[in-house]
Design brief:
Layout lengths: L31 H13 L3 E7 L13 E5 L1 H9 L8 E3 L2 E7 L10 H15 L3 E3 L2 E9 L2 E8 L2 E6 L2 H15 L2 E5 L2 E4 L2 E5 L5 E4 L1 H7 L1
Antiparallel strand pairs: 1-8, 1-9, 2-4, 3-4, 5-6, 6-7, 7-8, 10-11, 11-12
Length: 217
C-alpha cells in the first residue's frame, strides 16, 4: 500500500461459463452481519484475536475438471524459462508462440477456483474439529478448553479468536502446517478486508474505514 501498482497473471474463465452454471461455481463468503457479531463477541469476551492471510490460497486446491489454459506470446517465454522442458511443447499459430497446459490446481481467474478453495479450507477446519455455522458457512466454531474458538474467513483472509492466546497460536500452527506460512497480525489493532479494527479494553470494538475510502477516492 505504498502507491505502487499491484498486478497478477490469471486465467480468463469467461469461456467456462458455457459449461459451468453460476449456481455450480458460486462460493460463500462471510456475511457482514456474521462478521460484525463475531467481532462484538471477541470484544465482549476479551478474546485474543489474530488475522491471517493465506498466501497463494487457490493453488492449495485441486482442479476437479479438465481445464486447458492457452498461453501466448511473452507468457510462453516466461513459462519456458521457469520450466525448460516445456519448450518442446511450444507450437506456432499465426506466427505467435502458443503453449497449451492442463491445470491441476485452481488457478486464479477460473470460475470454480473460489469454490474449490472454499471446499479445501472448510474441509481442513472440519478435520481440525471445527463445526460450520449452518446460516453462515464462513464462520466455524470449536470448544477448546471449555471456551469457544471462532474462525471467520473471507476467501483467504481469516480471523481467529479465543480467550487463550496459546490456543490461537496452536490453531495458527495447524493451519500453517497445511497451507504454509501465513501473514499474521496480532494485538488489539488489525486491518481486515478493508476495515480498521481496534479492540478496546472496555469490551468494545471500533471499526473504521477511513483509509479504505481514501484509497477509493
Amino acid at each position: 500500500r505504498d502507491g505502487m501498482l499491484k498486478g497478477r497473471a490469471c486465467a480468463d474463465g469467461r469461456p467456462q461459463r458455457k459449461f459451468v452454471s453460476k449456481e455450480d461455481s458460486a462460493s460463500p463468503t462471510v456475511s457482514l452481519e456474521g462478521l460484525m457479531l463475531s467481532l462484538m463477541i471477541d470484544a465482549k469476551e476479551g478474546r485474543d484475536v489474530a488475522t491471517a492471510d493465506v498466501a497463494g490460497a487457490y493453488l492449495h486446491a485441486t482442479m476437479d475438471d479438465f481445464v486447458v489454459v492457452k498461453l501466448t506470446g511473452k507468457t510462453v517465454d516466461i513459462m519456458c524459462d521457469v520450466n525448460p522442458d516445456l519448450r518442446k511443447l511450444v507450437v506456432i499459430e499465426n506466427g505467435i508462440k502458443v503453449l497449451y497446459l492442463q491445470l491441476v490446481k485452481a488457478l486464479y481467474g477460473c470460475i470454480k477456483s473460489a469454490l474449490l478453495w472454499y471446499e479445501c479450507f472448510s474441509s481442513c477446519l472440519k478435520d481440525l474439529g471445527f463445526t460450520l455455522i449452518p446460516h453462515d458457512l464462513c464462520i466455524a466454531n470449536k470448544l477448546i478448553d471449555g471456551k469457544q474458538c471462532t474462525i471467520a474467513w473471507y476467501v483467504d483472509d481469516c480471523k481467529i479468536s479465543h480467550v487463550d492466546s496459546k490456543v490461537v497460536d496452536s490453531i495458527i500452527d495447524q493451519l500453517e502446517e497445511k497451507f504454509g506460512k501465513m501473514t499474521i497480525t496480532r494485538g488489539p489493532k488489525h486491518v481486515y478486508i478493508g476495515m480498521e479494527l481496534e479492540f478496546l479494553t472496555d469490551g468494545r470494538v471500533k471499526v473504521l474505514m477511513k483509509d479504505h475510502l481514501e484509497e477509493c477516492f
